[in-house]
């Protein structure tokens, strides 16, 4: 398996190469590049099977790699290396993209290589990651819906209902989207916005759309448009606090 490392830090490149040599001898490093333009040239020339790509580099984000290639040219897998913050890690998970957190753990490196052998990252997932990394406030999120990616304005979301490994996103205009991500994936991304709260094991609600709270029958939130959503008893204090905060 032929691979290229793109990372602006020489120490990081050397460390990764040594780890691969010891723990993943089937991976041959054919080039080390210190910036994105150099990496693009090496990919075009050497046609690797795998690219280890740093996210944050001077002048270019690693995610800009997609801008240099047509869709039919991306016939290599990408494993991202990052020292990024918590939001970025959640964005990777939501987009189903493999990453290695610096400093790189040998066991995680081996696992990432094994996963890569079984299933290459889809181009759509890479595009989704790029969009979801663009805003830590997640005012607009990119989500997989069938065989396409759709972009949802979070201010127009009424609530999200979890249904096993899928979630149904219900919007203010009545449209609904069935998304192949579970509710925990959505919670990690969208609840960074203080207007959203997971109020029940099966529901995330846009708190700006709450009309009233009923204490009977275990607790219910009445939303705009006449939709009622159950709430968990453990969430009641937090819900009332959120309502008071938004109303100020």
UniProtKB/TrEMBL annotation:
Modified residues (4-aspartylphosphate): 54
Keyword set, alphabetical order: Coiled coil, Phosphoprotein
The protein's name in its UniProt record: Two-component system LytT family response regulator
InterPro entries: CheY-like_superfamily, LytR-like, LytTR_DNA-bd_dom, Sig_transdc_resp-reg_receiver
Keyword Lyase belongs to the record: no
Domain Response regulatory: from-to ranges: 2-117
Lineage start: Bacteria, Pseudomonadati, Bacteroidota, Flavobacteriia, Flavobacteriales
Gene3D superfamilies, per database record: 3.40.50.2300, LytTr DNA-binding domain (2.40.50.1020)
Molecular function as annotated in GO: DNA binding; phosphorelay response regulator activity
HTH LytTR-type domain residues: 141-245
Entry coiled-coil feature ranges: 109-136
């Amino acid at each position: 398996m032929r691979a290229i490392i793109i990372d602006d830090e020489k120490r990081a490149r050397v460390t990764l190469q040594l780890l691969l040599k010891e723990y993943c001898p089937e991976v041959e490093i054919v080039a080390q590049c210190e910036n994105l333009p150099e990496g693009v040239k090496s990919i075009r020339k050497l046609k690797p099977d795998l690219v280890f790509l740093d996210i944050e580099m001077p002048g270019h984000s690693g995610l800009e790699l997609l801008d240099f290639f047509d869709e039919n040219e991306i016939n290599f897998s990408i494993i991202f290396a990052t020292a990024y913050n918590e939001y970025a890690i959640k964005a990777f998970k939501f987009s189903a993209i493999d990453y290695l957190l610096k400093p790189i753990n040998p066991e995680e490196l081996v696992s990432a290589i094994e996963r890569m052998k079984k299933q290459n990252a889809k181009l759509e997932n890479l595009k989704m990651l790029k969009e979801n990394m663009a805003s830590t406030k997640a005012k607009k999120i990119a989500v997989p819906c069938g065989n396409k990616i759709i972009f949802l304005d979070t201010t127009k979301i009424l609530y999200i209902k979890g249904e096993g490994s899928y979630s149904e996103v219900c919007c203010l205009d009545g449209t609904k989207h069935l998304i192949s991500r579970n509710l925990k994936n959505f919670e990690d991304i969208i609840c960074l916005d203080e207007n959203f709260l997971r109020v029940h094991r099966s529901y995330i609600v846009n708190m700006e759309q709450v009309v009233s709270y009923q204490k009977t029958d275990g607790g219910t939130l009445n939303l705009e448009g006449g939709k009622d959503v159950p709430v968990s008893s453990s969430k009641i204090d937090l819900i009332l606090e959120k309502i008071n905060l938004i109303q100020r």
